[in-house]
Design goal:
Blueprint lengths: L21 H25 L5 H22 L4 H13 L1 H19 L4 E2 L2 E2 H25 L8 H40 L8 H25 L12 H21 L2 H4 L10 H7 L1 H15 L1
Antiparallel strand pairs: 1-2
Helix pairs in contact: 1-2, 1-8, 2-3, 2-4, 3-5, 4-5, 4-6, 4-7, 5-6, 6-7, 7-8
Protein backbone atom coordinates (compact mmCIF):
# COMPACT_ATOMS: atom_id res chain seq x y z
CA UNK A 1 0.00 0.00 0.00
CA UNK A 2 1.52 3.37 -1.00
CA UNK A 3 2.44 5.46 2.02
CA UNK A 4 1.36 8.56 0.08
CA UNK A 5 -2.24 7.35 -0.12
CA UNK A 6 -3.89 7.85 3.29
CA UNK A 7 -7.31 7.11 1.79
CA UNK A 8 -6.31 3.47 1.33
CA UNK A 9 -4.08 3.11 4.37
CA UNK A 10 -6.87 1.25 6.18
CA UNK A 11 -9.14 -0.21 3.46
CA UNK A 12 -11.44 -1.87 6.01
CA UNK A 13 -12.41 1.53 7.43
CA UNK A 14 -12.85 3.58 4.26
CA UNK A 15 -15.23 3.66 1.31
CA UNK A 16 -12.49 4.71 -1.10
CA UNK A 17 -11.63 2.06 -3.68
CA UNK A 18 -8.89 4.18 -5.28
CA UNK A 19 -6.18 6.63 -4.33
CA UNK A 20 -7.96 9.98 -4.95
CA UNK A 21 -5.98 12.98 -6.07
CA UNK A 22 -5.96 15.87 -3.63
CA UNK A 23 -4.58 18.41 -6.19
CA UNK A 24 -7.38 17.53 -8.65
CA UNK A 25 -10.01 17.99 -5.94
CA UNK A 26 -8.47 21.34 -4.95
CA UNK A 27 -8.36 22.48 -8.60
CA UNK A 28 -12.05 21.77 -9.15
CA UNK A 29 -12.95 23.36 -5.81
CA UNK A 30 -11.28 26.57 -7.01
CA UNK A 31 -12.85 26.40 -10.48
CA UNK A 32 -16.36 25.79 -9.18
CA UNK A 33 -15.89 28.48 -6.53
CA UNK A 34 -14.90 30.96 -9.24
CA UNK A 35 -17.99 30.30 -11.38
CA UNK A 36 -20.12 30.43 -8.20
CA UNK A 37 -18.81 33.91 -7.40
CA UNK A 38 -19.45 35.07 -10.97
CA UNK A 39 -23.02 33.72 -10.88
CA UNK A 40 -23.55 35.41 -7.51
CA UNK A 41 -22.38 38.76 -8.87
CA UNK A 42 -24.57 38.31 -11.96
CA UNK A 43 -27.65 37.45 -9.89
CA UNK A 44 -27.19 40.61 -7.82
CA UNK A 45 -26.33 42.80 -10.81
CA UNK A 46 -29.25 41.73 -13.01
CA UNK A 47 -31.69 41.52 -10.05
CA UNK A 48 -33.25 38.26 -11.18
CA UNK A 49 -34.60 36.14 -8.33
CA UNK A 50 -34.64 32.93 -10.36
CA UNK A 51 -30.86 33.25 -10.92
CA UNK A 52 -30.29 32.21 -7.31
CA UNK A 53 -31.09 28.68 -8.48
CA UNK A 54 -27.94 28.55 -10.63
CA UNK A 55 -25.97 30.15 -7.80
CA UNK A 56 -27.15 27.29 -5.58
CA UNK A 57 -26.18 24.74 -8.21
CA UNK A 58 -22.66 26.13 -8.54
CA UNK A 59 -22.32 26.38 -4.76
CA UNK A 60 -23.40 22.75 -4.38
CA UNK A 61 -20.67 21.69 -6.81
CA UNK A 62 -18.12 23.69 -4.83
CA UNK A 63 -19.22 22.09 -1.56
CA UNK A 64 -18.94 18.70 -3.25
CA UNK A 65 -15.22 19.09 -3.79
CA UNK A 66 -14.63 20.62 -0.37
CA UNK A 67 -16.21 17.47 1.06
CA UNK A 68 -14.04 15.35 -1.25
CA UNK A 69 -10.87 17.03 0.01
CA UNK A 70 -12.02 16.57 3.60
CA UNK A 71 -12.75 12.91 2.94
CA UNK A 72 -9.33 12.35 1.38
CA UNK A 73 -7.72 13.87 4.46
CA UNK A 74 -10.02 11.92 6.82
CA UNK A 75 -10.71 8.65 4.97
CA UNK A 76 -12.10 6.85 8.02
CA UNK A 77 -14.85 9.45 8.54
CA UNK A 78 -17.90 8.42 6.53
CA UNK A 79 -19.59 11.85 6.83
CA UNK A 80 -17.52 13.83 4.30
CA UNK A 81 -17.45 10.87 1.91
CA UNK A 82 -21.23 10.47 2.08
CA UNK A 83 -21.71 14.22 1.58
CA UNK A 84 -19.63 14.43 -1.60
CA UNK A 85 -21.11 11.17 -2.91
CA UNK A 86 -24.72 12.38 -2.55
CA UNK A 87 -24.23 16.05 -3.54
CA UNK A 88 -22.30 15.31 -6.73
CA UNK A 89 -25.10 13.00 -7.85
CA UNK A 90 -27.94 15.52 -7.40
CA UNK A 91 -26.30 18.96 -7.93
CA UNK A 92 -26.82 18.95 -11.75
CA UNK A 93 -30.59 18.90 -11.23
CA UNK A 94 -30.44 22.52 -10.06
CA UNK A 95 -28.73 23.49 -13.31
CA UNK A 96 -31.54 21.66 -15.09
CA UNK A 97 -34.15 23.61 -13.13
CA UNK A 98 -32.49 26.92 -13.99
CA UNK A 99 -32.60 26.08 -17.71
CA UNK A 100 -36.32 25.30 -17.42
CA UNK A 101 -36.97 28.59 -15.61
CA UNK A 102 -34.98 30.54 -18.20
CA UNK A 103 -36.93 28.93 -21.04
CA UNK A 104 -40.25 29.96 -19.52
CA UNK A 105 -39.06 33.55 -19.53
CA UNK A 106 -37.86 33.21 -23.12
CA UNK A 107 -41.35 32.10 -24.14
CA UNK A 108 -42.77 35.14 -22.36
CA UNK A 109 -40.32 37.54 -24.00
CA UNK A 110 -40.12 36.20 -27.55
CA UNK A 111 -43.39 34.40 -28.38
CA UNK A 112 -46.27 36.80 -29.21
CA UNK A 113 -48.99 34.85 -27.38
CA UNK A 114 -46.56 33.57 -24.69
CA UNK A 115 -47.49 29.97 -25.44
CA UNK A 116 -45.92 26.78 -26.80
CA UNK A 117 -48.26 23.95 -27.73
CA UNK A 118 -50.99 25.56 -25.60
CA UNK A 119 -48.74 25.76 -22.54
CA UNK A 120 -48.33 29.31 -21.22
CA UNK A 121 -44.92 30.67 -20.29
CA UNK A 122 -45.69 30.73 -16.56
CA UNK A 123 -47.10 27.19 -16.57
CA UNK A 124 -44.16 25.95 -18.64
CA UNK A 125 -41.67 26.96 -15.96
CA UNK A 126 -43.85 25.56 -13.19
CA UNK A 127 -44.45 22.20 -14.89
CA UNK A 128 -40.83 21.52 -15.76
CA UNK A 129 -39.53 22.61 -12.35
CA UNK A 130 -42.02 20.17 -10.79
CA UNK A 131 -40.74 17.45 -13.14
CA UNK A 132 -37.20 18.31 -12.07
CA UNK A 133 -38.16 18.08 -8.39
CA UNK A 134 -39.64 14.63 -9.01
CA UNK A 135 -36.36 13.47 -10.54
CA UNK A 136 -34.47 15.11 -7.67
CA UNK A 137 -36.51 13.32 -5.00
CA UNK A 138 -36.01 9.94 -6.68
CA UNK A 139 -32.26 10.49 -7.02
CA UNK A 140 -31.88 11.73 -3.43
CA UNK A 141 -33.84 8.73 -2.19
CA UNK A 142 -31.57 6.36 -4.09
CA UNK A 143 -28.28 8.09 -3.32
CA UNK A 144 -29.00 8.54 0.39
CA UNK A 145 -30.40 5.02 0.82
CA UNK A 146 -27.18 3.56 -0.52
CA UNK A 147 -25.40 5.05 2.46
CA UNK A 148 -22.66 6.12 0.00
CA UNK A 149 -21.33 2.60 0.39
CA UNK A 150 -19.49 0.79 -2.37
CA UNK A 151 -19.67 -2.50 -0.50
CA UNK A 152 -22.21 -4.40 -2.58
CA UNK A 153 -25.25 -5.86 -0.86
CA UNK A 154 -28.86 -6.10 -1.93
CA UNK A 155 -29.94 -2.93 -0.11
CA UNK A 156 -27.16 -0.87 -1.69
CA UNK A 157 -27.86 -2.31 -5.13
CA UNK A 158 -31.59 -1.54 -4.79
CA UNK A 159 -30.73 2.03 -3.78
CA UNK A 160 -28.47 2.45 -6.81
CA UNK A 161 -31.25 1.15 -9.07
CA UNK A 162 -33.59 3.78 -7.58
CA UNK A 163 -31.00 6.46 -8.28
CA UNK A 164 -30.58 5.25 -11.86
CA UNK A 165 -34.36 5.39 -12.28
CA UNK A 166 -34.27 9.03 -11.16
CA UNK A 167 -31.50 9.77 -13.65
CA UNK A 168 -33.54 8.15 -16.43
CA UNK A 169 -36.55 10.27 -15.43
CA UNK A 170 -34.35 13.38 -15.57
CA UNK A 171 -33.21 12.51 -19.09
CA UNK A 172 -36.77 11.80 -20.20
CA UNK A 173 -37.89 15.26 -19.10
CA UNK A 174 -34.91 16.77 -20.92
CA UNK A 175 -36.10 15.09 -24.13
CA UNK A 176 -39.63 16.42 -23.55
CA UNK A 177 -38.16 19.86 -22.96
CA UNK A 178 -36.22 19.66 -26.23
CA UNK A 179 -39.51 18.96 -28.04
CA UNK A 180 -40.75 22.36 -26.84
CA UNK A 181 -37.38 24.06 -27.37
CA UNK A 182 -37.32 23.03 -31.02
CA UNK A 183 -40.82 24.44 -31.47
CA UNK A 184 -39.65 27.67 -29.84
CA UNK A 185 -36.62 27.73 -32.15
CA UNK A 186 -38.79 27.39 -35.25
CA UNK A 187 -41.15 30.15 -34.11
CA UNK A 188 -38.25 32.53 -33.43
CA UNK A 189 -36.74 31.82 -36.86
CA UNK A 190 -40.12 32.45 -38.45
CA UNK A 191 -40.37 35.83 -36.71
CA UNK A 192 -36.85 36.74 -37.84
CA UNK A 193 -37.80 35.94 -41.44
CA UNK A 194 -40.83 38.21 -41.05
CA UNK A 195 -38.59 41.05 -39.91
CA UNK A 196 -39.68 41.14 -36.26
CA UNK A 197 -37.21 43.27 -34.31
CA UNK A 198 -35.50 42.16 -31.11
CA UNK A 199 -36.26 38.47 -31.53
CA UNK A 200 -32.83 37.39 -32.78
CA UNK A 201 -31.44 37.99 -29.28
CA UNK A 202 -33.12 34.76 -28.20
CA UNK A 203 -30.89 32.58 -30.38
CA UNK A 204 -27.57 32.89 -28.46
CA UNK A 205 -29.28 31.93 -25.20
CA UNK A 206 -31.17 29.10 -26.91
CA UNK A 207 -27.93 27.69 -28.33
CA UNK A 208 -26.38 27.98 -24.86
CA UNK A 209 -29.30 25.99 -23.44
CA UNK A 210 -28.80 23.30 -26.07
CA UNK A 211 -25.12 23.12 -25.09
CA UNK A 212 -25.92 22.91 -21.36
CA UNK A 213 -28.43 20.11 -21.90
CA UNK A 214 -25.92 18.23 -24.06
CA UNK A 215 -23.34 18.50 -21.27
CA UNK A 216 -25.89 17.30 -18.71
CA UNK A 217 -26.82 14.41 -21.00
CA UNK A 218 -23.15 13.38 -21.28
CA UNK A 219 -23.02 13.31 -17.50
CA UNK A 220 -26.28 11.33 -17.28
CA UNK A 221 -25.08 8.70 -19.76
CA UNK A 222 -21.84 8.38 -17.79
CA UNK A 223 -23.70 7.79 -14.53
CA UNK A 224 -26.01 5.22 -16.13
CA UNK A 225 -23.05 3.34 -17.59
CA UNK A 226 -21.13 3.60 -14.33
CA UNK A 227 -23.83 1.84 -12.33
CA UNK A 228 -25.31 -0.35 -15.07
CA UNK A 229 -23.55 -3.37 -13.60
CA UNK A 230 -23.91 -2.40 -9.97
CA UNK A 231 -20.47 -2.23 -8.40
CA UNK A 232 -18.88 -4.77 -10.71
CA UNK A 233 -17.87 -1.93 -13.01
CA UNK A 234 -14.28 -0.71 -12.81
CA UNK A 235 -15.30 2.86 -13.66
CA UNK A 236 -15.58 4.00 -10.00
CA UNK A 237 -12.01 2.81 -9.45
CA UNK A 238 -10.63 5.37 -11.93
CA UNK A 239 -11.40 8.96 -10.93
CA UNK A 240 -10.33 10.25 -14.34
CA UNK A 241 -13.70 9.07 -15.68
CA UNK A 242 -15.58 11.02 -13.03
CA UNK A 243 -13.61 14.20 -13.65
CA UNK A 244 -13.79 13.95 -17.45
CA UNK A 245 -17.44 12.90 -17.76
CA UNK A 246 -19.07 14.54 -14.72
CA UNK A 247 -16.95 17.33 -13.25
CA UNK A 248 -15.80 18.90 -16.53
CA UNK A 249 -19.24 18.83 -18.25
CA UNK A 250 -20.95 20.39 -15.23
CA UNK A 251 -18.24 23.03 -14.89
CA UNK A 252 -18.56 23.90 -18.59
CA UNK A 253 -22.36 24.09 -18.24
CA UNK A 254 -22.01 26.66 -15.46
CA UNK A 255 -19.41 28.65 -17.41
CA UNK A 256 -21.60 28.66 -20.54
CA UNK A 257 -24.41 30.16 -18.46
CA UNK A 258 -21.95 32.76 -17.15
CA UNK A 259 -21.20 33.91 -20.69
CA UNK A 260 -24.81 33.64 -21.94
CA UNK A 261 -26.54 34.74 -18.79
CA UNK A 262 -30.35 35.04 -19.09
CA UNK A 263 -30.29 38.16 -16.95
CA UNK A 264 -28.07 39.92 -19.47
CA UNK A 265 -30.05 38.76 -22.51
CA UNK A 266 -33.45 39.43 -20.89
CA UNK A 267 -32.79 42.46 -18.62
CA UNK A 268 -35.23 44.68 -16.80
CA UNK A 269 -38.37 44.07 -14.80
CA UNK A 270 -40.56 43.82 -17.89
CA UNK A 271 -38.74 40.64 -18.90
CA UNK A 272 -39.88 38.86 -15.74
CA UNK A 273 -42.83 36.50 -15.76
CA UNK A 274 -45.95 38.30 -14.49
CA UNK A 275 -47.45 37.19 -11.20
CA UNK A 276 -50.99 35.79 -11.04
CA UNK A 277 -52.27 39.17 -9.87
CA UNK A 278 -50.42 41.02 -12.63
CA UNK A 279 -51.84 38.67 -15.25
CA UNK A 280 -55.36 39.39 -14.04
CA UNK A 281 -54.82 43.14 -13.90
CA UNK A 282 -53.27 43.31 -17.34
CA UNK A 283 -55.77 40.93 -18.85
CA UNK A 284 -53.01 38.62 -20.05
CA UNK A 285 -54.96 35.49 -19.18
CA UNK A 286 -57.96 36.69 -21.21
CA UNK A 287 -55.69 37.62 -24.11
CA UNK A 288 -54.07 34.20 -24.19
CA UNK A 289 -57.47 32.50 -23.89
CA UNK A 290 -58.83 34.45 -26.86
CA UNK A 291 -55.80 33.65 -29.00
CA UNK A 292 -56.13 30.01 -28.02
CA UNK A 293 -59.84 30.04 -28.86
CA UNK A 294 -59.18 31.63 -32.25
CA UNK A 295 -56.55 29.06 -33.13
CA UNK A 296 -58.98 26.29 -32.17
CA UNK A 297 -61.68 27.60 -34.52
CA UNK A 298 -59.10 28.08 -37.28
CA UNK A 299 -58.06 24.44 -36.97
Amino acid sequence: MPASCPALADPDRTEWSLCPSTPAAILFTVLFAFTTIVHLVQAVHYKKAYCWVIVGSALAQTITYICRITSIKNPNDLGPYAAWFVIILVAPLFTNAFVYMAMGRMIWNYIPNAMLYRVTAWNFSAYFVIFDIIALLIQVAGASSSGASRHANQQVLNAIHIYMGGVAVQQFFILVFLFYAIKFHRMVLQQIQQGTEGVSGALPLLYAIYAVLLLITIRIVFRLVEYSHGFKSTIPDHEAYQYALDSVPMLLALVVLNFFHPGRIMPGKNSDLPSRQERKVDGICNKVAKINESSTFAA
